[in-house]
Amino acid sequence: MKADQTHPQSLGWLVLGLALGLLFVLISVLTPSWNTTNDVEVVAIVNGTSITREKYLSYLQALSEDKKDPIQAEDSEYILQRIIEEELLVQRGVEVGMLESDKRSRAALVNAMISMTTTAAEAKAPGEKELAEFFQDNLDYFTATSRLRVRQLVVKGEDSLQRAQLAYQRLSAGDDFYLVNRELGSVVALSVPDSLLPPAKLREYLGPTLTQMLTRQSAGFISEPTSMDSGYRILQLVENEVSQPPEMEAVREQLEAEFVRRAGDNALREYLDWLKQRADISYPSELPL
Question: Residue 52 belongs to what domain range?
């Protein structure tokens, strides 16, 4: 049987093999200590790089799933030759500097390394005890955001401080907000919606300082006049809907997913730190501004 026998699916398999082989070979180039073939059966050696029986069988299995007919002896030789050709092309790609010149190759390699680093950590199912500890340590993350309903009265123009103080006194005495606003307030371009809003949304109208202050207050709170551009403002907290922490079982699916995601993130961060520690990194010049 001839090694270069034409196969009806040769082009598709070669392209697929090149894509997969590029990742595996580039990874082995950057981390040669991981590319060991001790006690591993080798079916071919290409310029010093071993093609293991495991890799060969995985390709053969993929072909068997794609073929309608049973695998024949000629298919085995075909697969081996395609792997060898793939290896030669990938080695040539590294030789001519594709890692430095081709952004897609670099991106594929980076993504493959990230996947390889995080897969083991993400595959480990958390135990019940560590899941419970993770839940308690991150209770705020799994608790729905509180919502606040706030009204804002703005006073601008002449005698704005005196009118703002009068508005504050009337509101504190229980006068209707809309009546006081109509008689003493000023029209503003951006008014706070009279509805329950999460703090993140409320910050867009009031800024972080006032929003944080309001989250610590109870419904009915009225702020003293505070200065703003060309005037003063008064805030009335109508509702403060404080969310209660959920039961662990109610968010178990989200909890497990977040545990796994962070485990992968931590594994990647530890690996990157290790790479930096073993690398010789210098900064010859300052970064341009």
Answer: 10-123
